[in-house]
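chain below, 561 aa
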Amino acid sequence: MEHLRGAAQLANALVDEVGVASADAFRGALVRACASTWAAVLSWGHLFWLCALPAWRVAALVASAAWPHARDGGAAAWRAFAAQERAWIAAELAAAALTVLGWLLERHIRRQRYVSRARAAWRRLSARADAAYTTLLASIRAKSRTLAALFPHLAFAAAAAALAALAPSTTRALSEARALLSVGFPLAATLAALRSAEPAAEDHWLRYWVLYALLELAKGAALALPLARRAAAGAAWAAAWVPLLELFALLWLHLPRAGGTELAFARARTLVCAAAPLDPRARGEWGEWAGARALLAHGGALIGATVGGGVFAAARDSGAMLLALLFLPMPGALTHGGCLLFGLGYPAFTSVGALAALEAAAERAARRAREPAAATPSAVVRVGEALWRSADKLRRRTSGAVRADEPAAASASAAAAAAAAATPARALQGEEAVAAAGVDGAAARRLVRARLQYWLVRMVLALALAPFRPLLEWLPLVEHGELCAVVLLQLPYVDGAARLYGLIVEALRSADGGVSPGAQPFTPSLHAQPARRLQLHGAGDTPTEAGPAVPAPMVARAAVE
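prediction:
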């Protein structure tokens, strides 16, 4: 008890010392706060009532005035509905019920996540099928590599023959969807690949567009021959078999495990590069003097771009596109041939070069990872570095501020070119040509994306103008306008394809209400950095290890957007 009494006295003394109010003071403050809060709530409620009362009265007046008209309109609508035939009434009721059921089903599917589950199940099934297919190919390859390489194509050919023999009506019905398989589906897949920035998908669809361009070019050249259209119209067997063959060819190119795109592109690449010169080792043009000529050409291009400005750089970077100007004063038939050549042939040529540059850059990176050895600088390397420093000083004097990373990048490019050209015992391979041109993996990837953007924009424009093609054929100079449009889409310093692709992406982004990964707006930076658009054209053409000879301007052209 004494302890408790002492503790109570100590607590009272501590309360008095701290200054804690009494219970009556706390009670009075709480009562006043509650009264003030209740008065505030009543005041806000009165204000809300004063604001809502006029609106309520206006709504009541409008409803009372509109009610007779709504009642009469509803009665008239019911009489019109009841006056219909019972079949139409049943169809309308069924449509309404299906709409409600569809909405309920969509809510149920979204809540239960059936779509994501189905995608996951499809991925698992695809993985199992891929594993089984890989095992089958491995077992066939163990017996015969040739049979393993031919197995996907033989299996597809057997399946196509069985489908054509067992279901001819279904096959003919499917052949009507050739336009969807040849342009529609690849166009949507190309746009998805560009927006998602998937390298494998971009490479695949660029290969497909090269094949499509070559086939269209061959078709246009064949129809341009004398009496070709009349002979094609008179061939009765073509009307029955050509659509089926075209359907199976498109399926062979699109099916994932058929391997048609890769095989056809490998053969088409040989045809595209058939005009390239032979192996430079047979001509003996590679050596110190070839490297010196390349460095002098590079230095002259630098000085010319500094002195002449963007006009000289634009004319140089345009390359063979300037030859399209020769078709403008020609008649319409010849101008149409120029449209085919520069709208399909030349883009296919540059697309093959972009893929070759990408493959060479990958091989060069792999070789560097395996053999990290630095080349000893030679006299040509020192000459190239001195030439770059002199050109850089001149450019700094004339243009002012320059990016800090340009001298180092160009010096490394010149050093790589000189080191590659200083090896007379062997010819430059594909990855060394890319190194000489200063084209790394990122630049090659940008070049592939630029080619894909061109094909996407060109196909979109072709589809948009297809309904008006019969009307446009009656107008004069239509082929000349088409040729100018094709040239403007591909000129480096105009970048019409990139600009239109940016507009397409912005339109899709506004329609989707969000930003898709990998889809970035077009920012023209070509005139701001003219030095980064310079190319190094070696003395001759360079073969790649992965395929036939590829012209050096194709491999060396690394246009940076």
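The chain has a mean pLDDT of 72. The longest strand covers residues 542-543.
thats it, cya
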